[in-house]
């Protein structure tokens, strides 16, 4: 985690992104968080052969994982100590095939309500072209204690 911005993020992020917390799957993608707050989460990552599908481009599941990871972290930060969140729907569209190079993914809220949230995650290449866009819906699960 490079740059938590919100003071509330330190404790939550320790639970979400500490060693083994997010899991080696997201870590294997090489996500480097550059902005982390309840209003926006941004990460950079590198497209390369380890993330390719058989035709030499980044696998669609990688893009879905980025959407799920950034959207879940953003949802959890916004919901905060009120409880936990779980993803209930991840829908991702692919606009531009990429094989190599730096990518930037950013999660922003579309809806943050009492019981659910919807986050849009856009991934752009180094020319700022849209590569993929996903939408993650999370369910807010209030604490009972």
TrEMBL record:
One Pfam family name is: 4HBT
Cross-referenced InterPro entries:
HotDog_dom_sf, PAAI_dom, Thioestr_dom
What the entry lists under Gene3D superfamilies is as follows: Hotdog Thioesterase (3.10.129.10)
**Which keywords belong to this entry?**
Hydrolase
Report the residue ranges that make up the Thioesterase domain in this protein.
55-132
| Any Gene Ontology CC annotation | cytosol
The answer to whether the entry has keyword Glycoprotein is no
Q: Which domain of life is it from?
A: Bacteria
Q: Which GO terms describe its molecular function?
A: 1,4-dihydroxy-2-naphthoyl-CoA thioesterase activity
What family is it from? Belongs to the thioesterase PaaI family.
Q: What protein name applies here?
A: Uncharacterized protein (TIGR00369 family)
Source organism (scientific name): Lapillicoccus jejuensis
């Amino acid at each position: 985690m490079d740059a938590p911005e919100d003071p509330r993020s330190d404790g939550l992020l320790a639970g979400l992104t500490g060693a083994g917390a997010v899991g080696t799957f997201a870590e294997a993608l090489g996500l480097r968080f550059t902005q982390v707050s309840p209003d926006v989460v941004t990460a950079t990552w590198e497209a390369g052969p380890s993330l390719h599908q058989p035709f030499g481009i980044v696998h669609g599941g990688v893009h879905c994982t980025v959407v799920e990871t950034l959207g879940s972290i953003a949802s959890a930060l916004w919901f905060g100590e009120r409880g936990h969140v779980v993803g209930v729907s991840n829908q991702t569209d692919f606009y531009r095939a990429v094989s190599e190079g730096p990518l930037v993914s950013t999660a922003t809220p579309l809806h943050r309500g009492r019981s659910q949230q919807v986050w849009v995650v856009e991934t752009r290449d180094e020319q700022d072209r849209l590569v993929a866009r996903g939408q993650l819906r999370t369910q807010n699960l209030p604490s009972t204690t």
